[in-house]
């Protein structure tokens, strides 16, 4: 018969059980070939096959059904990718949507937040004349 220290603990209001408690079994010893394989694989590291592609932030064109996207592997996050897309020619319209260069030119829903090229006829003529004068003066005599 089992002694009280070896019996399963009783639930309050029930009679104590006389079933012996299972003795803790020692953990099995690892097999030698498993240890050898673990040692070989421990120092061999490789890049994840798909991991880098999951972490690259991508900016999508937000104009209608356009599926253009911009990604930069050197970008550090979404804000950095957005800034790099703007540097690459993407623009934010008056409604705050990011638009690819194609949609800026062809999508009638693109609302420019500022003129594409601020242009004043008289200033343009003056700058052209000034550039031409500097270009002629800088040319060596033949």
Task: Note the main attributes of this structure.
142 residues, mainly alpha, two-stranded antiparallel sheet, two-stranded antiparallel ribbon, 35% helix, elongated
Structure explained in plain terms:
- With 142 residues, the chain is mainly alpha-helical.
- It is built from five helices and four strands.
- The protein has a domain at 51-106.
- It has helices at 32-42, 51-55, 78-87, 101-106, 121-138, and strands at residues 58-60, 69-71, 91-92, 98-99.
- The longest helix is centred in the C-terminal third of the chain and has 18 residues, at 121-138.
- It is elongated, with a radius of gyration of 37 Å.
- The protein starts with 31 loop residues before the first helix and ends with a helix.
């Amino acid at each position: 018969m089992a002694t009280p220290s070896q019996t399963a603990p009783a639930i309050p209001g029930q009679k104590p059980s006389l079933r012996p408690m299972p003795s803790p079994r020692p953990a099995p010893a690892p097999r030698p070939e498993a240890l050898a394989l673990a040692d070989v694989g421990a120092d061999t590291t490789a890049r994840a096959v798909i991991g880098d592609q999951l972490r690259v932030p991508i900016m999508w064109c937000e104009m209608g059904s356009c599926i253009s996207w911009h990604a930069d592997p050197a970008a550090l996050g979404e804000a950095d990718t957005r800034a790099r897309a703007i540097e690459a020619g993407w623009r934010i319209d008056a409604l705050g949507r990011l638009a690819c260069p194609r949609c800026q030119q062809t999508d009638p829903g693109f609302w420019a937040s500022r003129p594409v090229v601020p242009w004043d006829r008289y200033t343009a003529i003056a700058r052209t004349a000034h550039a031409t004068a500097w270009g002629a003066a800088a040319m060596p005599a033949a």
